[in-house]
Amino acid sequence: SKEKLSSARLTEATDAFVEQFTASIDFDKRMYRQDIQGSLAHAKMLNKVGILTDEELADIERGLAQIQREIEAGEFQFSVAQEDIHMNIEARLTQLIGITGKKLHTGRSRNDQVATDIRLYLRDEIDERVLPQLKRLMEGLIEQAERYHDAIMPGFTHLQTAQPVTFGHHLLAWFEMLYRDAERLLDARRRINTSPLGSAALAGTTYPIDRHYTAELLGFERVGENSLDGVSDRDFAIEFTHAAALLMMHLSRMSEELVLWASAQFQFIDLPDRFCTGSSIMPQKKNPDVPELVRGKSGRVYGHLMSLLTLMKSQPLAYNKDNQEDKEPLFDTVDTVVNSLIAFADMVPAIRFNREAGYEAARRGFSTATDLADYLVKKGLPFRDAHEVVGQAVAYGIRHGKDLSEMSLQELQQFEPRIKADVFDVLTLEGSVAARDHFGGTAPRQVLAAAGRARERLQTLKTA
Ligand code: ARG
């Protein structure tokens, strides 16, 4: 095809299949905005150092603005023959403004151009979609934690009833996981925000370019130190995907609990119908599709992380065409994370916790057994002996179908005469949670205080 990126070095036209096979335009056109932004900065810099005249710069600016309008209006003719977004835009620019369009690529290579585009793209996605949705979800968790700061449910270890906790406390545990994810994303963003522009193909360029000027125009925080590293480094993409994989792991854990809690056997929560679907055969069904799907989607992000690590493994310096394979995993990671966060941020504030079901489940599981042991320690028993005594009481309770709090004082005293009437203060679920009244504990007033701190910490999460 005569429109093809031409090389006088090559004597044959590219094989038609190879042209398709090596093209990336179908997916990298998603970076058109960043590609234009990068070209504008590059052109301004070329003008500043005397390589482009004011008129040439004005033509380039006008042409690129028109191309952006064409793309956003859906009128731009993307061509596989032009291989990627960079060549497509440059070819169209030359059509629009003539010979000056061919000067834009002075002192630049697609190698530093694509590295610049991906960094700008990821920075935008973090700022415009990932972090805002993550923060919205975290806000929803704080609100729900406040609403249910005193709603009791069993806490679990080994998925067996362990000790009573509050639903609010459980939700704030989720908040902590997500808070670390936000910190990791912000940390990755610091290294994303380094300018590779001016690295050119690999060695830099013979033109008197001003890399600090383009970096400043593009809002990069620093200029990459080494041109070979500039065109070949994809650590930042791996770091982002790693943060995303951890985030998806957390969402999958939340999903698992939501699915479990929504079951008829638990009935701890009610998911609004709009986040569920029915069954095509079983008329009674209300399936928790949203958390199930998010749980499943964690797998594809793990896969993308492994793809990117493997893509970069053993690559010699500097740029290799392999790197074109970074985009699809990265883009799908962004989309998967953003969509999962949107679904969760919409759903979490609408979850209704069933206080009676949570309370009953905590009562049934001897969840205050540790409280009784602690009570006996305070009456002078060594902890190991207290553990033994309570174990006997629980075995009795199982035989007679009675929770500890349902036994009479006489029944309890057959296991240890030091038990007195004040035991019932610690055997109630309310007494049990209220007693864990320290920083990070499940006492309702601690949960409220933690929710207040969480809200403040959310405010101070900043892009830096
Ligand atoms: N489409 C390429 C990529 O995604 C752009 C850089 C191509 N550079 C090259 N020398 N072939 O990596």
From TrEMBL:
Its EC number is 4.3.2.1. GO terms for molecular function: argininosuccinate lyase activity. Gene3D superfamilies: Fumarase/aspartase (C-terminal domain), Fumarase/aspartase (Central domain), Fumarase/aspartase (N-terminal domain). It catalyses: 2-(N(omega)-L-arginino)succinate = fumarate + L-arginine. CDD domains: Argininosuccinate_lyase (cd01359). This is Argininosuccinate lyase. Pfam families: ASL_C2, Lyase_1. InterPro entries: Arg_succ_lyase_C, Argininosuccinate_lyase, Fumarase/histidase_N, Fumarate_lyase_CS, Fumarate_lyase_fam, Fumarate_lyase_N, L-Aspartase-like. The gene is argH.
